[in-house]
Amino acid sequence: MESQETLSGFTRIETDRLVLRRLVPSDAAVMFEYRSHPDVSRYQGWAPASADEILAFIDSLQKAEPAPGKWFQLGIALREPALLIGDCGVHLTAGDPRQAEIGITLMPSFQGRGLASEALRALLGHLFNQLKVHRAFGSVDPRNQASMALLARCGLRQEAHLVESYWFKGAWADDVIFALLEREWMARHP
């Protein structure tokens, strides 16, 4: 499939301040530092226990080709200095790779500067312009107001609010779905 081939050949996306790139083994310690921060891990499904677990995850990304049904994680780095500050994920759905679930994680000390919006807009542009995805969507816990605001700021609209729809960290949690269609993206970014 074209989407899979294009994703497999991914190298990098550059913005004014950021580079979205493949994760490399030297990212493991920094990634563990921000992924294990309580403010970050509170709403994350994946809570790595160690930098070694992240290193193994990065290693698995290096060995496997991205494919529908699997998450493909990218590093978010500053252009200058070249410093990893977060990561974002893309999951082309197994049943229809023209739909992509997205997620983003940013180091707390770099939040509130518009960097997450810049990264997410770059990722959406890649999905719609290069991969020709029909629909991109994000799933967020409604207690995570910052993530909900980020998705809305990047043009995604709220499609659903599922009440106590998934078991998360020992309790039932709500799930809010935000989505954006290719035609909606193209109307705003001709």
Please provide a written account of the structure.
Helices cover 34% and strands 33% of the residues. The protein contains seven helices and eight strands; from the N terminus they run H-E-E-H-H-H-E-E-E-H-E-H-E-E-H. It has helices spanning 2-8, 28-35, 38-41, 51-63, 115-130, 145-153, 182-188; strands at 12-14, 18-22, 71-78, 84-92, 99-106, 135-140, 157-168, 171-181. Helix 2 (28-35) crosses helix 4. The longest helix has 16 residues, at 115-130. Mean pLDDT is 91; it is low at 1-6.
Task: From the structure above, extract its key features.
alpha+beta; single chain; 7 helices; eight-stranded mixed β-sheet; disordered N terminus; 190 residues
In short:
With 190 residues, this protein is α+β, with helices and mostly antiparallel strands. It is built from seven helices and eight strands; from the N terminus they run αββαααβββαβαββα.
Number of H/I helices: 7
Percent of sequence in beta strands: 25-35%
What distance lies between the first and last C-alpha atoms, to the nearest angstrom?
Answer: 25 Å
Radius of gyration: 16 Å
Helix and strand string, N-terminal first? HEEHHHEEEHEHEEH
Helix content: 25-40%
Largest sheet: 8 strands, mixed
Uncertain parts: 1-6
Counting helices, strands and paired strands, the structural category is alpha+beta
Strand order of the largest sheet: 1-2-3-4-5-6-8-7
Strand and helix map with partners:
Blueprint: H1 2-8, E1 12-14, E2 18-22, H2 28-35, H3 38-41, H4 51-63, E3 71-78, E4 84-92, E5 99-106, H5 115-130, E6 135-140, H6 145-153, E7 157-168, E8 171-181, H7 182-188
Helix pairs in contact: 2-4
